[in-house]
Specification:
Number of helices: 8
Structural class: mainly alpha
Order of helices and strands: HHHHEHHEEHH
Distance between the termini: 28 Å
CATH superfamily of one domain: Winged helix-like DNA-binding domain superfamily/Winged helix DNA-binding domain
CATH architecture of one domain: Orthogonal Bundle
Strand order of the largest sheet: 1-3-2
Strand content: 5-15%
Oligomer: single chain
Amino acid sequence: MQILQSVAPIRGIQGPMADEVDLRNMRAGCTCLRARRTTRKLTQIYDRALAPAGLTVNQFGLLANLDGQARLSIGALADLIGKHPSTLNRDLEPLEAQGLVADAADPADRRVRAVVLTRKGRAKLRKALPFWRRAQTQIEEALGVETTLALNGLLDLTSVKLTA
C-alpha cells in the first residue's frame, strides 16, 4: 500500500507550482510509463537469453504463435498477438528472408496474405526453446513464482479489459 500512497495526488497547491507538482504526480503514477519501463527490462532479459539461438523475443513469439497452425492470415495473427498488421508485416520480413516463415495462400480468398511456419522455422523455434526457458526461470527466480503468476494474471486481465 505504501507504493500506492506515494503516488497519491497532492491536493491544495495553487499557483505556478501546481503544474510542476501535477507533472511529478503524473510521472510517478503513470501506468504506461511503468509498463514500458518494465517491458524494456523483461525484453532485455529474453533478448539476451535468446541471442545464442539467433532470435529476439519478438521473433520467438511470432514463431511460437505460428507453431501448430496450418496457416494464419496476417489479420488473425495480428489480433492474436495484439499488433497492427503493418507492424506485423515488418516484423515478419526478416523471418521470411531467413526462410523461417513463408507466405501461404488462403484457399478461401487469394487476396488475403497468410503465413506459415516452415520446417526451418520449427527447428529454429525448438533450438531457441531452452534459451527461452532460461529467461523464464531467471524472471521467476527474481520475482518469485507466486508473483510471476500474479503478474501474468494481471497482464492477461488488463489486456482483456482494455480491449473491451
